[in-house]
Amino acid sequence: MQLAPPLTPLDGLDAALEAEGYAVLDACGTGALAGVRPGSFDALASAWEALPPDPHLRDGGRYRARRHASLVVDAREGAAEVVPHRAHFQPVEYNALHGGLERWFDPVDPAWLEAAPFRGLLAALATRLGRRTGVPRWFVEVHQFRIDTRDGIGRPTPEGAHRDGVDFVAVALVQRRDVRGGETRVFDARGPRGVRFTMSEPWSLLVLDDARVIHETTPIQPERAGGVRDTLVVTLRRGGFQAL
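Predicted structure:
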């Protein structure tokens, strides 16, 4: 049985982040946030069919494919600049499994990064979260993830419940096909409160205040051959990118 997400109306996004440290928008809310029709995002999904394998999985799995990009985004106007391709890095205290490594992934297609729906979403996140925090610019990392079930199980968060070492994390579900499991769990980082739900609507969006909550997604298993879970993850950090 899947638990429905505790959806937040777009005009309640700031209040939800303030009160709970997270918010979930449905696809219509994501489209309104980005200033596009919800169906506009569908054209972006084909990129997930061409993701190369993640070469850094330390648990020996073959279930994850991904691409990565880095940008600097003006938090007042939303203008974004793609920076030269760089490694993804997290300290051990934020990722016990893969922390301490400079992980190089194939870059996101430059044309995809220029697509109007993505740019609209990125600008909206940057400006809205910039107003909340007074941060003038964000150091943004973009991750395209596919978790597959070819070996019977796929782990969206093999590191377990975690924080990412950034200010905010946005997770958009691109598609969920022929799988069971994949329950999202969000917990107060300083107390016992938490929620659990399953993101199932394409282009619904989870926004997290990374300092206040920890999160994870449970493993997926196939309902039929070819089951996958695709997500777009955008992290926003003040002051600079995490680096070795």
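Summary: The chain has one domain: 10-38+63-237.
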